[in-house]
Amino acid sequence: MAIFLLRNVKLSVLLFLISTKKCTFAPVKLIIDIGNTVAKLVAFDGEEPIEEIKTSNETLAALPAFASKYHFDRGIVGSVIGIPDAVEEMLTSMPFPILRFTPDTPIPICNKYKSPYTLGSDRLAAAVGASILKPDKDILIIDAGTCITYDVIDAKKNYWGGNIAPGMQMRLHALHEYTVRLPLVQAEGEVPGLGYNTETAIRSGVLRGMKYEIEGYIKSMRAKYPHLLVFLTGGDKINFDTNIKNSIFADRFIVSRGLNKILDYNYDKV
After folding, report:
1. How far apart are CA 194 and CA 127, in angstroms?
2. 233 and 115, same structural domain?
3. Among 100, 116, 131, where does a domain finish?
4. pLDDT category, 241, cuts 50, 70, 90?
5. How many domains does the chain have?
6. Does residue 154 have an active-site annotation?
7. % of the chain exceeding 90 in pLDDT
8. What is the pLDDT of residue 238?
């Protein structure tokens, strides 16, 4: 009886160790999105993100620790600022292959942009990400970050490009830096319909101006694409009216999802 129990205990321990090892060391993919102000490191299990951290876009200082946390079997990096030599050296030293997303990288959509070598990798990746979540749909992707970008991909997976406008912080800083007396106003605070002093006039002008701009783009694009879907991503929070808010899908991983799909699409090339 004692020997039987001991064997059962050993078997249970062995099964536990095997299951723990699978959970801890299951291969995942590393997605690196280097933006204008920050870089995002995202771990993907299949098609879903499991963790995201932010780090310096110039040094990727958090990459070694993040890479040691998971058993990555491959990765991809997209950058809107290029890849500094020190970062390139770090990427090359990783114990798994990392695909550099360039204008020549094959993608699962048709890029109709007329200057593909000047197109930001984040914009194209966002279009890919949106088309995964809502296939066979006309989609407007709004990314409210350093800049606000408006990009369109149609139901046939044709990416047509879009527009670029200043982001929230860029607008607030421009009013201060390009005038003599206007102060630098923080985005947090009261946003009345009409500013009652200089601070609220600037804040309301910027935040409400962004809101009206975005709502205008949505209305304009829906005239061309009646069944248009709208995705909103990026770091800036914008308060929309209820009828507009209810028609928008928010997904902060839209760019990362696109990079992840592009990595899968180039599986045999990594």
Report:
1. 36
2. yes
3. 100
4. low
5. 2
6. no
7. 83
8. 75
